[in-house]
Design goal:
By secondary structure, the protein is mainly beta. About 15% of the residues lie in helices and about 40% in strands. The protein contains two helices and seven strands; from the N terminus they run H-H-E-E-E-E-E-E-E. The strands form two sheets. Strands 1-2-7-6 form a four-stranded antiparallel beta sheet, with no helix packed on it. Strands 3-4-5 form a three-stranded antiparallel beta sheet, with no helix packed on it. A hairpin with a 3-residue loop joins strand 1 and strand 2.
């Protein structure tokens, strides 16, 4: 069977490199792709868990009294977590640092592994928060934050009628 007849586009007998010399944009694109591949190679997520990259699951629920946020942050301590409210924005920042060292003088090797990871997330609050009554609890790797609404400035929904033209 002749497979050339099944190909949608005929293959050129000239090598790809000689085609690149005729098309400078193709050559530039290949070089840019290679450069970005080399630059971002270290950013890839590892195949196993616990390598310093924080991708916690966050649940955010708006209630009649405010907002309840639940974040899973396993392996962290309360001192590794920072919570701030500024300009009606709740900011959750967590930082993890881990160092592991192995050595065996009999086999003449020493292995030191360090990993760090930072998680930063901003949540826009749809109301004026009561900053004095915000609570946060951290238990067994789960952070629970309650941000109540301010009683001075309750925002009510307003229905707007749409008129046909």
């Amino acid at each position: 069977m002749d497979f050339k007849s099944l190909m949608p586009f005929p293959r050129s007998s000239t090598p790809l490199r000689s085609t690149e010399s005729m098309d400078p944009f193709l050559s530039l694109r290949r070089e840019m792709d290679r450069m970005f591949e080399d630059f971002t190679r270290e950013w890839r997520l590892p195949t196993g868990a616990g390598h310093g990259f924080l991708t916690p699951k966050v649940d955010l629920v708006e209630t009649d009294t405010g907002i309840e946020l639940t974040a899973e942050l396993p392996g962290l301590a309360p001192e590794d977590i920072a919570l701030d409210i500024e300009d009606d924005t709740l900011t959750l920042k967590a930082e993890r640092r881990e160092e592991k060292e192995e050595k065996d003088d009999g086999k003449h090797y020493r292995l030191v592994e360090r990993s760090t990871g930072t998680y930063l997330r901003h949540f826009a609050l749809p109301f004026e928060p009561d900053r004095d009554k915000v609570t946060a609890e951290f238990d067994k790797g789960v952070l629970k934050v309650v941000v109540p609404r301010s009683p001075q400035a309750p925002k009510k929904a307003t229905h707007i009628d749409i008129k046909a033209a």
